[in-house]
Protein: Bifunctional uridylyltransferase/uridylyl-removing enzyme
Amino acid sequence: MDSIVIEAPSGEDERFDTARITAAVDALAEKHAGREDVFRSALAQLLKAEMIAARATAQGVLLRDRHGRRCAERLCFMQDEIIRILYSAATRHLYRSHVPSGAERMAVVATGGYGRGLMAPESDIDLLFILPYKQTAWGEQVAEAILYCLWDMGLKVGHATRSVDECIRQARGDMTIRTAILETRFLTGDQPLYDELVARFDKDVVQGTASEFVTAKLAEREERHRRAGQSRYLVEPNVKDGKGGLRDLHTLFWIAKYVYRVRETGELVERGVFDAQEYRTFRRCADFLWSVRCNLHFVSGRAEERLSFDMQREIAVRLGYTSHPGMQDVERFMKHYFLVAKDVGDLTAILCAKLEEEQAKPAPVLSRMVARLRPGTKRRRVPDSDDFIIDNNRINLAAPDVFKHDPVNLIRIFRLAQTNNLAFHPDAMRTVTRSLKQVNSQLRENPEANRLFMEILTSDNAETVLRRMNETGVLGHFIRAFGKIVSMMQFNMYHHYTVDEHLIRCIGHLQEIERGGNDEFTVASDLFRKIQPEHRAVIYITTLLHDVAKGRLEDHSIAGAKVARRLCPRLGFSTADTELVAWLIEEHLTMSTVAQSRDLSDRKTIENFAAVVQSVEQMKLLTILTTADIRGVGPGVWNGWKAQLLRTLYYETEPALTGGFSEVNRAQRIAVAQSEFRAAFNEWPEAELNAYIGRHYPAYWLKVELQRKIRQARFIRASEQAGHQLAINVGFDEARGVTELTILATDHPWLLSIIAGACASAGANIVDAQIYTTTDGRALDTIAISREYDRDEDEGRRATRIGEMIEQVLEGKLRLPEVVARKAANRGKVRAFVVEPEVTINNQWSDRYTVIEVSGLDRPGLLYQLTTAISKLNLNIASAHVATFGERARDVFYVTDLLGAQINAPTRQAAIKSALIHLLASEDNVAQPAA
Structure:
């Protein structure tokens, strides 16, 4: 473990002028001789000013050359020099020892991230003060002088003061301390003392413990990934701690340094761990991630490691990315980021394979659910193939040229791994990546290759195998349209993953739907068992391709259908099945849109949807696809409410497609829903239960999931027994990260607007709403709002305040528009996204109502503004369907004029549309009270 020396950055105008600053410090010491406190204060002010200037210079250079590693080295050199100046000032001017004893020695050492010689602008400084054998008054004074000055400069400092013996003893028992000492770097003081620590650490701690260290570091990495989000394709990644981030590169180097005793990553080439190309990849990944991290710190002014949406666009501009047709500058930047994260994962796999060969790491399997390879069988031939071998439970190549002599092997290797539950040997994956030129038009048209690909897609562990095919580049080369969306990010808050990762995850959810047994997917699983056998492959290829045309100028559903028409015949699909795949892709958003934003109790909604889906079989397939698609968006997006809406839409539409015959007709389904409620809820006498069931309209029984019905029954009864005209129940949906307010009140034309305004006044953002009325004139509304507090108790108090405000408005004690206006004036103006406002007015979606669909950028109070504006336009809101897709709000209102008629006059429709567009486009628009 040799010390790393950080050299001064090149360029006269960029150099931290240590000599000049040291002279200034000496002058201050002379000026304030005998006045220690004054000298310390002046010293801290001087160095802080120099540090600020040096950071500004570093940021200026970073903006010019966009080289993050050099910026991190420049900042580290500046910090090193400051600490050396402080040590010199402390030992020469404050606590000079004219005849130092053997105990009055100290080595000041950088540890941890600072010890690596790279430093982000807002990173902590980790220091170790090494003493010979015990603390002395001199050593304590010098360490305190350095630390207090650093703190006075506003720096965050982690520190420890230990003897060499203490360092060795603690490193043996604490892996964190061991890692910190592994990365120590001498700064100033007594060099022999530091050399003693290095020698003893190598001899007494490192030797013979490589396996222990590797196991601990890889376990630590897994836990870090779990906390940060397991996928490296999360659209708001953590640059430092996320999967594929800087910490993964650090972990690689820690392990390499510990196991192979190297001091620079370049030595890994000499040790045969990486080849020259892989080492260049290591450097390129590190350079890019450091550029992102340094810019992130400079822009935020703090140690921000999460590349959030509001940061991404600015970082993209600072790094020089530009927009191209179909892709924004920020999307191109994030695509580059995810490609780098993938490369970091590949490097990790390569190192782990090397360690495994040396018994420093256990061998993996493709699926942890299946038993490992039998003991004692380290290398043997893969069944049914002479081109591949099993190497310690990984599939590897029997000869280097297996892909050259038969390019189909580029697909076959993945199918054999899937069939035999084998993990992939990094050497094989290296060769696969370097053989991508073999994936040409001849291979793409090869019937055997296409057959193998369809077997991979439709067999167990398809998600895992497809992900490996994607990471090696085979999937994107074999299906070229897929290659265009690899690592493509959609710059919105709705999708949690890159497009390719979303599609691959959807395949995993589709397999879960097919297996059945998961209550999340009851309807889709039941329908999967009933689809025609030949359509099983249809639903799989559709799921893989449904978003494959994202990032094009043409609507991705239409463009994706064209891709399917070209690709499916090659994969062995008939003309009819090819058209079915194309239709499903073209309509893959339709069912979700209708279910979440249309009145499913309106007969016209069902007739229009039936006209689109055309047949029960196509509706079954579309229901399955929609379920997998929503579930694959990200955690918390799929929920019981959406499942119930899809169920309702399916069974409402089925009779329209079968000429009145339905496997479960509407009356039967209402009766079944009521029977389920009776069976699960037996707390009331039968007469009371019958009366309660009669209070709800059929739509309630069809749309609301059972557990919510039970909770609401208890809530309504308790509220009415207490004599409350207005009651609010608070619930918490942890999966979705929302607080639910269930409100029982006398129905009122402005009730929804009042609820929305009260939520806006309390700073609560409504993400969806379920609105029902009872036969006796009561409103039962469930409003989901984004959480503000981590603790349920705090959220409960906020909900109580919202309820009190609703009550005060209904009683005329509070003027809501004034409260909302004050709240709007105080809110921040974070605008990471731009959503073009859209308003559609349609009389074909309902026979009784005019349907107004509004889409625009979500913001606090938007629903209040919309409902108030609609009421001011002399419209009655019969029902509202509120949904939020990330930053985009999509609200649909079923309205009539004051006489209960549809809005037919073109001039009136134009006036409504103009007013709502103006409201959506105005950032600070706050609805005013009605005249």
